[in-house]
Every structure is written in structure tokens, then in C-alpha cells.
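Hey, weird one. I pasted the Zinc metalloprotease sequence into the form twice and got a warning about non-standard characters only the second time. First submission, copied straight from the form history:
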Amino acid sequence: MLTTIIAFIIVFGLLVSVHEYGHMFFAKRAGIMCPEFAIGMGPKIFSFRKNETLYTIRLLPVGGYVRMAGDGLEEAPVKPGMHIRIKLNEQDEITHVILDDQHKFQQIEALEVKKVDLEEEMFIEGIAAYDDARHRYTIAQKAFFVENGSLIQIAPRDRQFTHKKPFQKFLTLFAGPLFNFILAFVLLLGLAYYNGTPTTTISQVADGMAAQQIGLQKGDTITEIGGKKINRFNDIKNALNETGGKETEIKVTRDGKTLTKTFTPKKSEVKVSKNQKQTDYHLGFLPTKERSLVEPIIYAGEETLRFGKVIFVAVVGMISSIFTGDFSFDMLNGPVGIYKNVDTVVKTGITNLIVWTAALSVNLGIMNLLPIPALDGGRILFVIYEAIFKKPANKKAETVIIAAGAVFVMIIMVLVTWNDIQRYFL
């Protein structure tokens, strides 16, 4: 059990960290201020600050986030009706908005807030205690909220997500899923360099399978299947699937001679959704593996694309099932389901755990690109709208839609988690 818990923490932490780091990497290069980088949700259990970003680990393993200034998802700590204290510079600009009593600032002003804008015009307006008159103070280029014993920088207008160009916004949002795809590639690449990549030469034939039935042996090199030239291992899988399970001719080389034999591939079906199966055809052998410089790169790329194709088909099938009435929450896995899968996979060895993590990373990338508000894909739609019509979508409408999307996602997460608990533990 301890091994499973450790593996789950590593897998979950890696997937979320890489995804959110992708967002933050491009956000910071676009000049967007990122006040917080969080792994997990809920109460903080650990945190540290580096430069302007607070890095936190939170209690609930249900995701993570990067808080970006001006992304429409954060709530300003100052609102009309609040009583605050402010510190001004020589130009009567606000340098500190004091929201606690843990700092001993000199020469500060008490203010009852009447109006505040921290996105466009950057000001706070209110009734000053010293003269009971209404004043409007501009926020200095470098200003801070003073809260809970910490200084939190107020993002200047030019460092807010909402004021960046559409292309910069797109890269920032797309980078999360992109980094998940890159992570899958890197994991598979490292595995390929460590274990070697499969070749077209047979290492072992499986009992009762077509390869054994037609007399293939260790050391045979497959050169052709069904008239298709075989140069690499993936060519074998593609050629077998093109046969459709029909009797097929295969050519192999043995001791410098070419042998031609006829076989019927064995059909296998893997369930990828409730009503959808993936069909493959097999010859029944294990390939030899070899180490090279270039082949692992090609292999890792092909496997990442293959995972993407399988998962995309499954996601499309799942979405289609909503309209056909065949949808089931068993099609989805939440943190509990992922934990259970980790428990199963980790028992089969570290190699399978790494491959499964790569597949899960691709899955996370694809799911986040779904056009659902609050997910990356939904927010990208607003950016595309802005790029096409040369103006941002209505801010209030966008905020309401994203908030509704966030509520929808949270409800789905709760339902999926409860379904996982019932499915695996009750």
C-alpha cells in the first residue's frame, strides 16, 4: 500500500506540475504576473515564495492551478465598502494597500473604499478619514497588498493576462496540454533509450499463436506482410491491422534466405469506452530490442501519437454517448480511480508504470483541450473569438460562462469521485 501511495503522489504530482508549469513558463515569458503556482486544491499544507510567485502544495489531490494576474478567475481583495489603509508615495500614488495589522507602516491613510479598478484604470477611490472627502488615488507601477503578514504585488496593467495579445494568450493556455504531450514523449524516449527499441527480428514466439503455427523462429527477420514492405517494428503493427484478420502472406529472412509463409492474424479487442472497442491483429511474437541514437526518438514520437489517437477516439466516443443515452460515469476516472489504477499498474513493474504515466499525461492534455469553459480548451475559444473579431469577448459574459464551467467541472469531479469509490471500494 505504501508503494502505491508513493507512486500515486509521484505520478499525480508530475502530471499536474508539468501541466501547470507549461502555463507559467509561457505566461512569464509574455510578461504576465503569476502570483501563485499550486499543486492540489483546498487548504495549504506547504508553501514558499520565490520572487513574485508563491508556490504551494494543497491538501486535495484533484488538480492544480497557476493564478495569473488579470485572467478573470481571481477575486480582488479590495471591494467597495471595505475599510482599508493605504500608504502613498511623493506623487500621491498608492504603494501599499494594508489589509492586516501585522506591519507597522508610518504615515498611512485610512480609507473607506467607494470604487476600485485594478484591471483597466488602476485606481482606488474612497472617503479619506483625515478630511471626510472623496479622493481618487492611482496605483503606483510597483505596489503591494499587505495581507496575512505578506507583501503581494499588485499586477500593473501591462502585466495582466487580459491585456496581452491573443497569440500570447493562446500560447499561455495551450502550453499546459502541450507540456503534457512533451512529458509523455520524454518518458517514452527515456524508456526507449534505457530498454532499447523493438526491431523487426523475432526474439521469441508465443505458444499457440500464428507465428508458432507457421514455424517462425528466433532470429527470423520480417521483411514483408501482405505485400507491405517492413522496415521498422511499427510497420508490422500497421500491416497486420490492414489485413482485417484475413489470411495473409508473410516474408522473413533466415540465414540469408527469404521464406514465404501464409497465416491468419489473431484478432483482439480492447474496450476504450462503454460502447467502443479498439481492434488489433497479432502475429504472436516478441521482438528483439536494440539501442541506437535516432530510433528511440522516432519510436517515442510514434507511441505518443498512438496514445493520442486512441484517447481521442475514446473521448469522441464518450461525448457521442451523451447524445445516444449510453453515457456512464464508468467512462471517467477521478483521483480515486487513478489511485486504483496506479495500484494495479505498479505491481507489474516500473516500466509499465512509466508507460501508463505517459498515456495518462496524453489523456490529461487532450481532456484539457475540450471546449468546456474553465478548461484550457474553453478559454482558448474566447481567445480565438478575440483574434477573429479584433476585440475581447464581453468581460462579464466571459466571467459568468467560465464560472459556470468551473461549477460544472467540480460537480462532475464530485460525481466521478463518488462513482470511483462505489466501483472500487464498496
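That's the output from the first submission. The warning seems to come from a hidden character in my clipboard, not from the data itself. The chain has three domains: 2-24+162-183+337-425, 83-159, 197-290.
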